Amino acid sequence: MDFNVKRLAADAGTFLSRAVQFTEEKLGQAEKTELDAHLENLLVRAENTKQWTERIMKQTEVLLQPNPNVRLEEFVYEKLEKKAPTRMNNHELLGQSMIDSGNEFGPGTAYGNALIKCGETEKQIGGAEREFIQSAAINFLTPFRNFLEGDFKTILKERKLLQVKRLDLDAAKTRLKKARMADARAAAEQELRMTQSEFDRQAEITRLLLEGVSSTHAHHLRCLSDFVEAQTTYYAQCYQYMVDLQKQLGSFPSSFSNNNQSSVSGGASISVPTIPVSASLPSVSAGRGSSGGFSELRSSNGSRKARVLYDYDAASSSELSLLADEVIAVSSVPGMDSDWLMGERGNQKGKVPITYLELLN
Predict the structure, then answer these.
(1) How many alpha carbons lie under 13 Å from residue 198 in its C-beta half-sphere?
(2) 357, containing H or E segment
(3) What b-and-e string marks burial along 102-125, b requiring 16 or more CB atoms within 10 Å of the CB?
(4) Which are the contacts of 64, defined by CB distance < 8 A and separation ≥ 6?
(5) How distant is the alpha carbon of residue 7 from its chain centre?
């Protein structure tokens, strides 16, 4: 019991010491240990990453589901860990209405048949939209949310602990300045050494976590590429569905076509060329490789100069650490993952991620 009372008293004393130090700093009556410039810059970058990740997530959610009431309902179901009820999207609802009305007017009539064909295409587009939303949620929103709810919360926790250790350090400095007796001064010096050691250790932990934001940016870049590729596939599917539908409507009797296209000069139908999806809209990964020359580099087995876009800390001995704006030699090694190249700087060699590089002519 006595031990617990002493521990509570010690904790209360520590809390009071921090509160006094914090208050005196705010009033300009006490000195404050400043963090080094590198750590401050890392903190600012982490906070910016958090704010922009939140904004991008919010706008992406609005894009995928414009109805705020439905978004709120899906959020509630997610928090309750229940599956949201399956509902038709707007394209599917329109398609079903067209099909129902076409059946009412009669599938044997030109108008009824056209409505049914349009309805079937709208439902196809609705299905493509559903696949796009699912892909975007898994490959884009989920990694962004995991960063906010995982890595960044850890950073916040360690950052708050760093603030506590900094207050303890500055409070110890203040007590040393006020100490007059030799015994009190010796105790204050010992306390200062201990608090300085704890502060330095916590600053190093916080720095390592903050430097990991560079890896987060690289991961989010890959997620962004996946999102763009999903959009490319979705829009290509929609375009192809509509081109096919237009061809089907063009096969209807000329009298029907002319009556419904009187606004077009001469009653002629609008001609839209069919563009194969694979040819007209290349995948994001292929476009990225060809634009940067990475595909040619892999096929040639040669070596090129490349400029480093961002700092990169090697995660293992097989990788090469990079500094932004430096120029290194890169080459392809058979069997290596397509997202990596072999980098060389003087006598140093190691794997480097291509997302951190820009090939030079």
Answers:
(1) 18
(2) strand 357-359
(3) beeeeeeebebbbbbbbbbbbbbb
(4) 133, 136, 137
(5) 45
152 vs 262: CA distance, rounded Å? 60
Query: For residues 292 and 88, what is the distance between their CA atoms, to the nearest angstrom?
Result: 41
- What DSSP assignment string belongs to 75-104? HHHHHTT-PPPP---HHHHHHHHHHHHHHH
Pairing mode, strands 348-353 and 340-345: antiparallel
* Averages of pLDDT over each 10 residues, the chain, 361 residues: 52 66 66 88 96 96 84 70 79 96 92 94 95 93 94 95 91 86 89 94 95 94 95 95 90 52 41 43 38 71 87 87 91 84 92 89 75
Amino acid at 161: L
Q: Is 301 left (phi over 0), alpha (psi -120 to 50) or beta?
A: left
Distance (Å, rounded) from C-alpha 114 to C-alpha 246? Answer: 10
- Token digits for 2? 């006595």
* Rounded Cα–Cα distance for residues 341 and 305 (Å): 12
Tell me the pTM. Answer: 0.61
